[in-house]
Design a protein that fits this description.
It is built from 2 helices and 22 strands. By secondary structure, the chain is mainly β. The strands form 6 sheets. It has a 4-stranded antiparallel beta sheet with strand order 3-4-5-6, with no helix packed on it. The protein has a 4-stranded antiparallel beta sheet with strand order 7-8-9-10, with no helix packed on it. Strands 11-12-13-14 form a 4-stranded antiparallel beta sheet, with no helix packed on it. Strand 5 and strand 6 form a beta hairpin. It starts with 9 loop residues before the first strand and ends with a strand.
């Protein structure tokens, strides 16, 4: 059982507010889709620091705290801790991009919720935090291979493991993002790298999750319209799972989460533009859907001027635990990073983990 996924059935839903009062109950994401979740909405003032460009989030096992990583929308990126009992942002740790610091894409709690991690993207590290009630304090950084993005903490046949999807193979060179092709494996007891799993063709791995048993891990391939399956006993890739050849349905897989009760894994697909691969479509769709804006494997351009009001919404989900959410709060960043075709919609696809 994956400890970091136990708890309240919530997911972080990040969105831009809309102008009309009538739309207040149905906020619109940067991709233009209305979201009507149930639950608590927590706001951060536009004049406040941090929480600009929120991406992945993690819910503590007791359902009382949410940790979010924000990146790419301003000079200062951040890790933000929210109190879900009383509905406020409890702590924020800033990272100065001009000083080479970074927080990028994902967050995860360790079992017991006293330790947490946020991926560091271009900084090449994980930020390790001590969590004490409303307090969030960085206690160190952990080397995690090039451009750490998606995170998953679980118990595998080899013991406790922290899997890190390496989105790029090195820092961008001018406008070029060298795509990554590895997953870095850490032993969280020592914070040391114990293995590097080669996924083959460089396709910008982004999100990662363990199945409910910890026997397998699944990694979304942003450029490949596929999910890579990993045998955690041997720590090797064993399969590529096709998400389909319809670019409007299953392109750019990003967020991924496992069902703790059934042998299923769910992926969020940005459905932006056709990718290079052409495979068969999935056999079924999930019972629920979610909205997500497109995000390339790079940091979005930083806009100038005052950012919009940022909000986090804890909403009911088909399964308990964490669902990373690749949604930007910046309209200007979205206009550069997203080129979704008219009529396309982000989607969820699913497959049974027992078949891979």
């Amino acid at each position: 059982m994956l400890n970091h996924r136990i708890g309240a059935a919530v997911a972080a839903c990040l969105f831009l507010p809309v102008a009309s009062a009538a739309a207040a109950d149905a906020p619109v994401t940067p991709a233009g889709f209305r979201v009507k979740p149930a639950g608590l909405e927590i706001g951060v003032s536009k004049v406040g620091s941090g929480f600009q460009g929120p991406l992945g989030s993690a819910v503590s096992s007791d359902g009382r705290r949410l940790l979010s990583a924000s990146s790419g929308a301003a000079r200062y990126e951040s890790a933000d801790l929210f109190n879900l009992d009383d509905g406020y942002r409890a702590s924020s740790v800033p990272y100065d991009a001009q000083a080479g610091q970074s927080a990028f894409y994902d967050a995860v709690f360790a079992p017991g919720d006293k330790t947490a991690y946020v991926s560091g993207g271009g900084q090449g590290v994980l930020h390790q935090f001590a969590v004490d009630g409303d307090g969030l304090r960085e206690v160190g950084t952990v080397a995690a291979g090039p451009w750490p993005a998606g995170l998953a903490y679980g118990t595998t046949p080899r013991g406790s493991r922290l899997y890190v999807a390496n989105n790029l193979s090195s820092n961008p060179v001018g406008p070029i993002n060298p795509p990554g092709h590895t997953v870095t494996v850490l032993d969280p007891r020592t914070n040391e790298i114990v293995n590097t799993i080669d996924l083959g063709t460089p396709l910008q791995p982004l999100g990662v999750t363990f199945d409910r048993t910890g026997a397998k891990a699944y990694v979304t391939q942003w450029m490949g319209r596929a999910v890579a399956a990993i045998d955690t006993a041997t720590e090797t890739k064993v399969a590529d799972i096709s998400l389909g050849d319809d670019a409007l349905r299953a392109d750019h897989p990003s967020a991924i989460a496992a069902n703790p009760r059934r042998d299923e894994v769910y992926t969020a697909n940005a459905a932006r533009t056709p990718s290079r691969s052409s495979t068969r479509p999935p056999t079924a769709s999930p019972p629920r859907s979610a909205s997500a804006s497109s995000r390339a494997g790079r940091r979005a351009p930083r806009p100038t001027g005052s950012p919009p009001r940022r909000t986090a919404r804890a909403c009911t989900s088909p399964w308990p635990g964490r669902t990373p959410s690749p949604w930007s709060t910046s309209r200007r960043a979205r206009s550069s990073a997203s080129s979704r075709r008219p009529g396309t919609r982000p989607t969820w696809t699913w497959h049974r983990t027992a078949s891979a």
